[in-house]
Structures are given as structure tokens and as C-alpha cells.
């Protein structure tokens, strides 16, 4: 399967003035291009506030964001006209940066319902198989065995909430899993467990888009492609070598190499430059 994002521009309405309730529209994504194929593992890195979570939300269908230009297609089908649950049933999954607490619905009921709608009306989940699979996943994630029976995320610690997102992913087996900072708030042991569980999903029917700030999660996940997002665009794509470079040197070198200053040098932002022609070529000051 193939998820393609083409020239995606996204605005959000914000309150300009609390007193007169005036709203203003600001552009967050300014032309994102990305192609994701099942069988591949991708990472997106980038400074705070550059639009990574916005991209994740738009792919999943968060109505707060308005797509003003561009498209998202799944095997050629328009994703932007699909409802959120249709996107989910088609195999798109989002592990949120800030998971919500939902009272009154237990984790296991929630996951079971989501699995049932995937099966359709004529088939029913075997309760025995579901329980066995749930127990296996909970144990692989080294979660407390009571967590599936509690209300979704209610009173969960930060790390438990993140593991719970991965539990949902393991049970639902999506084709495209967008994981938004699943490493934040995890202790070192949990980081290893979550990383290894994500890596174990790798396969011909699975693609992951892992949003992270740090190398430490990607030590456990074998990613094939790394993308850097700056100011609402993917400005650089390369392989794993980019992760270490960013961990050690931050983002200033990318901005310098690409001449990124939104006011002065807009044109460089729209180019996707390969690592070979940019980042390693430190002696060549000429812009590619
Ligand atoms: N619903 C919203 N209302 C107002 N502004 C928003 C909204 N959503 C996003 N923004 C703004 O858009 C920009 C991008 O936000 P986003 O959460 O996508 O960044 P990010 O790259 O995920 O950052 P971080 O690494 O800190 O998680 C920020 O300046 C943010 O304040
Ligand atoms: Mg974010």
C-alpha cells in the first residue's frame, strides 16, 4: 500500500483577540511532500513547532485543521474526503503525542470494538482469541495486567499512556502507524520495550512514520528513511546517518546549508535535498 502526501498546505484558525472573539487563520504546513510505502519505516525529526504533530493530525483527519492546497491519497484514493473512522478502517493509525483520557470505556472494550468493526457485521471476534492476544501484547509491552480493564488512560502515568498507544497499535495491526513522540516520558527500560515492539511490527503490510526528537528511540527501531521538517516543510530527506548528526549538532547546520531564513530565502525551503548533495558536502558553500 502507498500513502502519498502532495504539496500539502494546512491552516489553523486561532483566536486573535479574546475580547472580541476575532479569529485569524495561520498557515502551519506550507507544502509537505512525502511518500510512504508498506514495508518501509520512516522517521520525522524537526525543531519544536514546525508542524510535525499538525501533519499527523491532518493525516488522521482532525477537523481543527483546514487543508487549503494539496492532497493525501491511499492507493490512489482521496483520504481527505474520508471520515476519521474510515481512515482508521482503511489502516491508518495515530499514536497521539498527548493521548486523551476517556472515562466510562475500558481499554479492552475500546480495542475489541475497533477490531470488531474491521471484521464487518458477519464475523465476530472470538473472545478467547481476543483475550489471549491482549494478554500476549500486554506482556510483551511489560504493562501492568490491570491496565486493559481500566478506563482509557484514566489516571495512567505518562509512560503508561504511551505504552497504551502502542498496545492499541499491536492489537489493531494498522498498515500505516503514525507515532507522535511515543518516546516522550518513557524511562530507559520502557523506551527499549516500546522501541523493540515497534520494530517487531516491521513487515510487508506495515509502515511507520515515527515522529521523535531523539536518537535514543531510533536506536531500537531500524528506520529506512529520515525526514527533517522545518517551518512547515520537509526540507531534507536521507538515511539513518541523519539521526546521529541531528542528535550531535542540532538543526542549525541544515538551516545554514539550505540557507533557511523564511524572509530571505523562501525558494530553498521548497526543495527536498538529498544528504549526499547537502549535509556531507560541508566544504562546498554553493547551494544545491
Ligand atoms: N489548534 C491549533 N491552534 C493554534 N495553533 C496551533 C494549533 N495547532 C498547531 N498550532 C501551531 O502550529 C505550529 C506547529 O505545531 P505542531 O504541534 O504541529 O508542532 P510540532 O512540530 O509537533 O512541535 P513539537 O516538536 O513541539 O511537538 C505551532 O506554532 C503551534 O502553536
Ligand atoms: Mg508535536
The first-level CATH class is given as Alpha Beta
- Unreliable segments of 5+ consecutive residues: 262-288
Would you tell me the overall average pLDDT?
90
Taking all Cα atoms into account, the compactness measure Rg is 20 Å
CATH architecture: 3-Layer(aba) Sandwich
Molecular structure report:
A hairpin with a 2-residue loop joins strand 11 and strand 12. It is built from ten helices and 13 strands. It has a seven-stranded mixed sheet with strand order 6-9-10-3-11-12-13, sandwiched between helices. It has a four-stranded antiparallel sheet with strand order 2-1-4-5. It is globular. Helix 5 runs parallel beside helix 6. 35% of the residues are buried. The longest helix has 15 residues. It has one domain: Rossmann fold (3-Layer(aba) Sandwich), CATH 3.40.50.300. Helices cover 33% and strands 29% of the residues. With 288 residues, the protein is of the alpha/beta class. The C terminus is likely disordered. The structure holds adenosine-5'-triphosphate (ATP) and magnesium ion.
